[in-house]
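EI: anyone free to look at a 314-residue chain?
SC: sure, send it
EI:
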Amino acid sequence: MPAVSVIVPARDAAATLPRTLAALAAQVVDGGREVIVVDDRSRDATVRIAREAGLGPVIGSDAPGPAAARNAGAAAAAGRILAFTDADCFPTEGWLAAGVAALAGGADLVQGAVAPDPAAPPGPFDRTLWVDADRGLYQTANLFVGRELFGRLGGFESWLGPVAAKELAEDVLLGWAARRAGGVVAFAPEAVVHHAVHPRGARGFVAERLRLRFFPALVARIPELRRESCFAGVFLTRRSAAFDLALVGLAAAAAGRRAGPLAWGLPYLALSVRDGVRWGPRLGPRVAVVGLAADAVGAGALALGSLRTGSPLL
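SC: here you go
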């Protein structure tokens, strides 16, 4: 019986899964490990690739989505420790051992570090993931939990699912359920996973901000996030606060026919200039304009979600 079961939900992951499984095959941990790939209704070669790797069971789930897939993997697991990562993630050498050591050090749930794939530096609009500290979000790209605690918490809950889009926040809810049950949560910076960099254009970058309409519901259910993740308890981020202040200044200047309130937009202007400088004179202006559009869409999405839930988040 292996000590650790690594659970990898996968949907149409043929492009990245081979590298994920190769990284998992290289992991060494006392007591051994198994890798369970849970197919989430893939239409490509995901299942064949997983079976040919021969690292452990390849199963399906009764319902669509990552929460159901991870729960199916946990139900099939033989290990006393569950390690979660994704089919577009590439654990570094020693990842599994570092996560297990953090649990052995007294933690009940461990968040590991996530950084973009160093072999593919992200462009300004590409999609990837950074996790450099415990910010209360408990991303399952890199998460460890004892099987007993996972079962006691009831696993992942699929509760915030946009129509025709990937559900979200099932991992956040699990982490906070563990904390509310008295579990000790730790961050393991030595347990590093690299996340694939998915190319994306400006249109996709802006459109993704529509998902922010679900964040007020998340904060309504987990109000502790206002303290641990939100800026000043009311704003999603420092950037969203700067954008809203700029909007208020613009409205005040227009209403009063005076230029003074326009200065309220200086913090947002500074952020936009910083982004532009980072990408240089060729990309910088476009990055700033697209960033403005994305922030406008995000502000509207947050306002809509706040009105729907009665839980203000700006």
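EI: The mean pLDDT is 95.
SC: 👍
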